[in-house]
């Protein structure tokens, strides 16, 4: 709740329109040229199960584990925008480099057991004393072990917001202000145990993903005043334990524009639709038609920091020529009114005199030392009638 209030206050939101569900698309399953065949396994000691692998953007989920493991099996990391990246561990100097992530106790359940003196009979324990000790119970990894993508934990949270002082919980990917291109698959990842019902103490069993438009005005940019007009994408209910969901933006979502500002949010099943707000722990993104060729310059970043961007900058750019024309018109009339009082002869004479300065005697100049001197009457003369020298 505290994070939600911080995000809302940072965005300075005037109001949020009611949530509306536009459509419920099903997750798109992609395939590769290599066919992934179903396989079976025994779970919970006696139960048989057929597992069907699924390939999404080259990442195979629920693949058959290798018969033996040396800890060097490839695993999938996620870039800041949610794109998958294959990591191949290796051994250097006896140590494993780029090995699978260690999740510590983030997915374990802590329990406290109390021991009496009669149970322990410790020599340094008083007969009336009890001893409490914490134990961590491993989660059921029957299905999470088939996920090759790194899981989201609080260690991989990032800071978001205008001052970068708000935790991204529950998201690890994508990072705030990431760009999602049309027809490219991105993986949303979140810390599953973040969604714990404060009333029951149970972690949400199911969640669904929402994408909502963010309406921005040029005058609002830099001040984070935004309005959420509605949700345009809603996933089906998925198991929260997976902690990952693949999304491929569609061109229709841009509504004819090159770029749209959107917010990504996750709704747990214990929050009703009418009580859910996309701004609660949401992440702001850019959805674009394609890659931008030009890079943002320092001047553009400076304008953005000053709150000058988009149409506001266009207004300034259009205003500048008009101002220049007015200045030139005023300058022209000023010069015409004062043309009779303009006399620059003193400036011209000073400039010419500087050019006529004597630099020294010709006889002392290196260039003219060996030059033979002639009398004036021996020098060539100019004949005006013939227009040539004689």
Summed up:
The protein is α+β, with helices and mostly antiparallel strands and 390 residues long.
Strand content: 25-35%
Strands, count: 23
Mean pLDDT score, rounded? 79
C-alpha termini separation: 105 Å
Q: Secondary-structure element order, as H and E? A: HEEEEEEEEEHEEEEEEEEEEEEHHHEE
Residue share in helix: 10-25%
Q: In terms of quaternary structure, what is this?
A: single chain
Unreliable runs: 1-33, 218-226
Total domain count: 1
Output the structural class: alpha+beta
Over the alpha carbons, how many angstroms does the gyration radius reach?
Answer: 38 Å
Total helical elements: 5
Largest pleated sheet: 6 strands, mixed
Sum up the overall morphology in one term: elongated
Describe this structure in words.
The protein is of the alpha+beta class. The protein has one domain (2-303). It has 5 helices and 23 strands. Strands 14, 16, 17, 18, 20 and 21 form a 6-stranded mixed sheet that branches. A 3-stranded antiparallel sheet has the order 13-15-19, with no helix packed on it. The longest helix is centred in the C-terminal third of the chain and has 27 residues, at 311-337. The protein is elongated.
């Amino acid at each position: 709740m505290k994070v939600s209030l911080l995000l809302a206050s940072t965005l300075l939101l005037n109001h949020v329109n009611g949530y509306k569900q536009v459509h419920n698309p099903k997750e798109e399953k992609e395939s590769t040229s290599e066919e992934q065949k179903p396989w079976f396994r025994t779970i919970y000691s006696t139960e048989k199960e057929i597992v069907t692998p699924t390939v999404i953007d080259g990442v195979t989920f629920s693949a058959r584990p290798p018969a033996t493991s040396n800890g060097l099996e490839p695993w999938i990391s996620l870039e800041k925008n949610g794109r998958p990246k294959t990591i191949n561990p290796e051994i250097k100097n006896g140590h494993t480099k780029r090995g699978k992530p260690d999740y510590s106790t983030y997915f374990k359940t802590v329990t406290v057991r109390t021991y009496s003196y009669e149970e322990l009979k410790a020599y340094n324990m008083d007969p009336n004393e009890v001893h409490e000790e914490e134990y961590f119970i491993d989660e059921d990894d029957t299905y999470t072990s088939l996920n090759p993508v790194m899981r989201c934990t609080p260690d991989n949270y990032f800071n978001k917001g205008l001052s970068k002082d708000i935790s991204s919980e529950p998201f690890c990917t994508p990072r705030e202000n990431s760009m999602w291109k049309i027809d490219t698959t991105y993986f949303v990842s979140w810390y599953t145990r973040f969604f714990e019902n404060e009333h029951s103490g149970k972690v949400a069993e199911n969640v669904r993903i929402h994408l909502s438009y963010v309406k921005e005005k040029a005058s609002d940019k830099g001040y984070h005043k935004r309005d959420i007009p509605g949700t345009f994408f809603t996933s089906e209910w998925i198991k929260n334990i997976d902690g990952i969901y693949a999304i491929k933006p569609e061109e229709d979502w841009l509504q004819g524009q090159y770029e749209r500002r959107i917010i990504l949010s996750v709704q747990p099943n214990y929050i009703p639709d009418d009580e859910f707000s996309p701004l609660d722990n949401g992440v702001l993104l850019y959805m674009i038609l394609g890659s931008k060729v030009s890079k943002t310059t320092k001047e553009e970043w400076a304008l953005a920091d000053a709150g000058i961007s988009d149409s506001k900058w266009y207004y300034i750019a259009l205003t500048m020529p008009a101002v220049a024309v007015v200045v030139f018109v005023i300058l022209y009339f000023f010069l015409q009114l004062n043309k009779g009082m303009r006399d620059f002869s003193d400036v011209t004479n000073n400039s010419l005199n500087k050019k006529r300065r004597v630099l020294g005697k010709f006889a002392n100049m290196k260039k003219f030392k060996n030059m033979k001197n002639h009398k004036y009457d021996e020098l060539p003369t100019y004949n005006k009638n013939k227009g040539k020298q004689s």
